[in-house]
Amino acid sequence: MSVKELRRQAREALADKNLAGALGRFGDGYAVSREEIFRGRDFQALREEVGQIKGHAALRMGELADRFQAAAEGLGARVFRAATALDALAYIAGLAREHGVDLIVKSKSMASEEMHLNRYLGEQGLNVAETDLGEWIIQLSGQRPSHMVMPAIHLTREEVAAIFSRETGRTVHPDIPEMVELARRELRRKFLAAGLGVSGANVAVAETGTVVMVTNEGNGRLTTSLPPVHVVIVGLEKLVPRLADVAPILEVLPRSATAQPITSYVTMITGPVGAEGPDGRDYPRKELHIVLLDNGRTRMAADPVFREALRCVRCAACLNVCPVYQQVGALFGDVYTGGIGAVLTAFFTDPQRAGEIQNLCLDCGRCREVCSAGIDLPGLIQELRRRTVAGAGLPRTRKVFFEKVLTDRRLFHTLLRVASRAQKPFVRGGRIRHLPLFFAGLAQGRVLPPIAASPFRDLAASLPRPAVARGRVGFFAGCLIDFVYPGIGAAVQKVCTHLGLETVIPLGQTCCGFPAHHAGVPDVAAHLARQNIAAFGQAGVDTVVTACPTCAEALKVLYPRLLGEDREWGDRALALAGKVVDFASFAWAHRGKLRLEKEPWICAYHDSCHLKRGLGVSEEPRRLLAAAGASIAEAVGGGTCCGFGGSYALDLPEVSRAVLERRLQALTAAGAPVVALDCPGCLLQIAGGLEDSGSPVTVRHTAQIIAERLEPTQTM
Amino acid sequence: MNTGTPGRDTEALYGAFVGSSRALGAEVYRAGDPAAARELIERLVRETGAREVAVASAPLLDALEAEKAVTAAGAVVATGSVRERAVRAGLGITAFELAIAATGTLVQDATALDRRLVSMLPPVHLAVVPLSGLRADLREVMAELAERQMPGYLALVSGPSRTADIERVLTIGVHGPGRLMVVFVDGEGGRVP
Are strands B124-130 and B179-185 parallel, antiparallel or unpaired? Predict the structure, then answer.
């Protein structure tokens, strides 16, 4: 499937307003209740503890599996080591046949979804009933779960009533308590009749052979208590060494999953226990079968990068905060959904699909903030993208752009100048509303600024400089400021001049390389990194200011990573990184010398992903704006991505636009006439969206605001 | 399970348990001695209106003469196989060993089948816990468990059975009991023999 096909499917998913409505409402509520449930707790310390437990366990997965097997078998359980999903399927179907089982009841298990257990057992003529309410609804409707924790979150009560009506052959009203009661009655009959119960596990303890399971409904307890045969499917990543490792996982999992301090039921099973069969027969020790499922996990553990994903506790917090998942739901995934879904899909279910869906990630970094085990999910998706591109290559036009154009600064800048003339037919009143060819999507629902007639690099020399400079600062413009928003560059230079600092703009600087890195071509990004490092190496400055957080993150974080191993460039990358500062932090640090007008005004503030999460800067711009008289009207969903994501807006314009729409609602609801922000990419996206919708709210870069509110200086 | 940990601030733990357990929708009661506990159970059984009550065997319930309380309330103690008793009963009574103050959680060695079915199948569950079984948090309980042989089936119960699978609307009593009553017992009767 091409990106084009993905875009088509995304359009389809976006057309389902129920889905985005339900996921969006849940996402907003989740953010609030999650914060509440972790209040007064050291989330960072807790997730580090969990990350360490699971991280160490992943390194010794095979050994833990052996120890678990020995302990469980010592208690009389039977342990089956399934190398593949098919091995596990055949084993479970064999058990059911051997015991002459008519009906199997199942409680929730993502591992069973991963192996498509229901479909397989159905094909074998076996009758399976899902007993988790959400899973049962999904099973009856023939769909697949849209969320790891809440499988039927995309369905309305009316849709559920229709599904239940079809199942029971009578009219079921869309009344939730009534429908829950119906499920209790229907499934209770099945529980009492079932000959085999299949459950999953959330943790498996090697030293004791214990499996731990969390549920809210109680179906897990009935599945493991009523039928005389019990099969537990345990993914190898669930193994931990000691019983003491269970508590931290149970502390973080329900809090992150559903903002509960603990689930209604936690069950710990250590060896076979007694049962009474549906026929009244007494089983002093029933059969307990534990299927230890590998299915790609050993391969994942051997991968030095992706091993990290084995720390996942399946809380789905990453889905709950993902702005793309909130719009397209299960399209962002396969069996496992969301960001973690893309990664698990690559190893467990469908590598090709993983290569496709990784395109949906905006790289906004929100999931990394909430991960229960501290997984760098955006980093893993980036690596997935890099490997996908290394294997399949880039689409031809993009390959030419990155490898031939972007790496040749003169050619790139010449083309931008040509484009500034070529775009003229599309510019109306200083704005672009329509674009031809594959750029068309960009101008949908978004009014674009044209490429500037003169780039900032041509303007800079004509702007005022301090009469007597008390120092020099370098300015890294970045493509958007240089060629689209030269006014932001001029504003930065005005502030520097006000501070008595000379602005140095090395002409050898070029694209920061982040778009190439994001597209999965790190070689091109490294090439650009060297060009920029060289350009600033000769500038003789100790500080390099940039008004683009993406560029700042590239220079500060990405370059040392890209060139860390490079003997010639590694140290130079670090030296440059140490000098780079975003505009807001720079200006805030020099606040003692800034003379700002103080009359009060109001603005909303939009945090850029790269500034807030990439660089950890969110207070400085707010304080700086406040020093210039602003009261900040905070928008709900603080820190949510605007949906720009560079080339993302070109590949998946409809998704980008849908993410933007939600952000615009929150920003305009804040009720301020101005939205302040620090990123030219966010500016392009948010101002374009507001203008397209006819909103009177204006959008300004913090540098522009500060430059306008400077009191006249005497040093000129 | 050992439930004797002298010198702890039981009252503070009890107060915390009441708060966290009620927040989950459970009802929490307390009896000062075995006789008061018996009266309390009798009153609660009568109030539920259950005609048939299943009682899972436990030394604590024997010590409190829980079955006498059931008949005194005008209900019948269910008889027959474990399944039959649990399926028919309108109320199930079981004993728990520990309680976790921080999360309002009850802890039970549920290896015996009657404890599992009697606490799960009836629509109402009455859980009796010794006050001396109160612990601060899950970590404390897990550390205590790690010191001995794990029971075959350990059950942690926090509030009634719940779901939010349809439109995220919280609904009580899906597969397990929709009503959970917790009775703490002080003093001699609260000590597992």
Answer: parallel
Cα separation of A53 and A48, whole Å? 9
If you write DSSP's letter for every residue of B6-30 in order, what string do you get?
A: TTS-HHHHHHHHHHHHHHTT-EEEE
Best residue in A136, A221, A222 to probe B by mutation, most B CBs within 10 Å? A221
Same domain, A614 and A581: no
Q: B20: which chain A residues are within 8 Å (Cβ-Cβ)?
A: 261
Question: Residue range A76-85: average pLDDT?
Answer: 98
Flag whether residue B87 sits within 8 Å of chain A, measured between CB atoms: yes
Q: Render pLDDT for A467-517 as a digit per residue (tens, 0 to 9).
A: 999 999 999 999 999 999 999 999 999 999 999 999 999 999 999 999 999
- Same structural domain, A633 and A661: yes
Which tokens go with B190? Answer: 């609260």
Rounded to whole angstroms, the Cα distance separating A580 from A590 reads 15
Tell me the C-alpha to C-alpha distance, in Å, between residue A215 and each of A139, A288, A675, B87, B176: 18, 19, 44, 21, 11
Same domain, A573 and A444: yes
Q: Please report, in angstroms and rounded to a whole number, the separation of the first and last CA atoms in chain A.
A: 60
Residue A363 lies in a domain: no
Specify the DSSP class assigned to residue A615: S
Q: Is A35 exposed, middle or buried (0-12, 13-18, 19+ CB in 10 A)?
A: exposed
Give the model's pLDDT for residue B4.
46
Structural domain for A524, as ranges = 428-588
pLDDT tens profile B42-99: 999 999 999 999 999 999 999 999 999 999 999 999 999 999 999 999 999 999 999 9
A603: domain CATH number is 3.40.50
